[in-house]
Amino acid sequence: MTGSPEEKRSAAKAEPSNVRSVAVIGSGWAGCAAAVELARAGFKVTLFEAARTLGGRARRIETDRKLLDNGQHILLGAYSETLRLMKLVGVDRDQALLTLPLQMRYPPGGGGMDFVAPRLPAPLHLALALLRSKGLDRADKMSLARFSSTARWMGWQLNDDCSVSELLRRFEQTPRLIQLMWRPLCLAALNTPPERASAQVFLNVLRDSLGAKRSASDMLLPRVDLSALFPDAASAFLRAHGGAVRTGAKVQALRSIEGRLWQVEVSGAAVGGTWSTYFNGVVLATGAVQAASLLHAVPDCDTTDVCARLTAFESEAITTVYLQYDAATRLALPFFALLEDPDNYQWGQFVFDRGQLDASQAGLLAVVISASAGVAAQQQDLLAEAVAVQLAAAFQWPELGRPSWFKVITEKRATYASSPGLVRPRNASGLPGLALAGDYTAGDYPATLESAVRSGVAAAAHLKGVT
């Protein structure tokens, strides 16, 4: 690649003599993970974020009511890289996360099930949970045991990918078990309906949680907002290691200078207009569409194949309905599964008692609707009313039908559809000194926080090997 004589002279002056510099574009969990790993390895890292708040699609937002998360997340004990990096940047796990055993519990008396794994070594914890479970008959329990044993025997691997629905048919799962266990688990893990979701990716998640040691199946509920859970601490870690964080700074263009430096053009009031700077490497950690746009505009570079994969994803939305009640309102558990029945305007799939996670949010319930594109198109007040009525009926508690206020938050591009056989781009972009990071890059997991963090770590490792 070539640039103008002026660019070459500026680049030569900007190139550090002994410290390798890297630009990380995008401060989602993938970008923050890459920045932390590179800073720890001695790189001089500059993190660029177009928004004012770090965290990407898992962050806090300021609403007209109060600070809220843009969605409710559950982490798993199997999220080893996320937990490692949280510890590295100084996040206290016990203070930041509430640890619960694997469970699928519905409001009592509502026709659901009650499944809780005891704290015993695997796989005894699952066997005893199944034996003690309520709301499942003998056929349902035998069906679940058959699924677990067959999946283990198969090594959690399929010769050919198929939909989760097809997998459940092959494993002869009962309709009730599908309704109460497999469908909500698939929606929560993949944010894709079972009839369109990848069975292999679903099995990967089950392998590392149900099929691993007992603690891997633990459910971890954030006690702090999502930005405070990792991105804010990652930012502080980066600054402490000589890096910089530029919020309100949108990267407009990238240019490779003779295959050895990258020119990054940035704009925004926070950076005083438009300016360019140079780096030895770049981690492109924006959303897939934004990444494709930046790569497509790189002069003299053939990124056709990479861009085609980046633009082939089908977005899936997640809607969270926040309902505020009197501060004394408290559910019996920190969270419950809900019976989903769209035909009867019952869209909620899980409800979380935010007051049991953060005392300052007493009386605040968060109801999650995954794969919510159709639901999100409705009027917010009607959707919130329907969800409140669903809670009142599920818990047989009329007061839940009358919240003092509500807030509906839909993240339209929360994830991509994790469909069978989906081909995801690698971290290596094919361009010298540039790596991709995001939950959409190649990996075993669907679009989860752990997938994003793993991708950021992999992108950092790639740059460490080539810069």
Calculate Rg over CA atoms.
23 Å
What's the helix count?
Answer: 16
Helix content: 25-40%
Rounded mean pLDDT is 93
Shape: globular
Strand content: 15-25%
**Strand-pairing-aware structural class:** alpha+beta
Number-wise, the strands total 20
Going across the major beta sheet, what is the strand order?
10-2-1-14-20
Largest sheet: 5 strands, parallel
Poorly predicted runs? 1-17
Distance between the termini: 17 Å
Structural overview:
By secondary structure, the protein is an alpha+beta fold. It has helices at 5-14, 29-40, 80-88, 93-96, 124-132, 138-153, 164-170, 175-190, 199-209, 226-229, 231-240, 288-296, 304-310, 373-376, 380-394, 449-466, and strands at residues 21-25, 44-49, 60-62, 67-69, 75-76, 97-100, 103-105, 114-116, 219-222, 244-247, 250-257, 261-268, 273-279, 281-284, 315-324, 335-337, 350-353, 364-370, 405-416, 434-436. The strands form 6 sheets. It has a 5-stranded parallel β-sheet with strand order 10-2-1-14-20, with helices on one face. The protein has a 5-stranded antiparallel β-sheet with strand order 16-17-18-15-19. Strands 5-9-6 form a 3-stranded antiparallel β-sheet. Helix 2 (29-40) links the parallel strand 1 and strand 2 (44-49). Helix 3 (80-88) packs across helix 16 and helix 12 packs antiparallel against helix 13. The chain starts with a helix and ends with a helix. Residues 1-17 have low confidence and may be disordered.
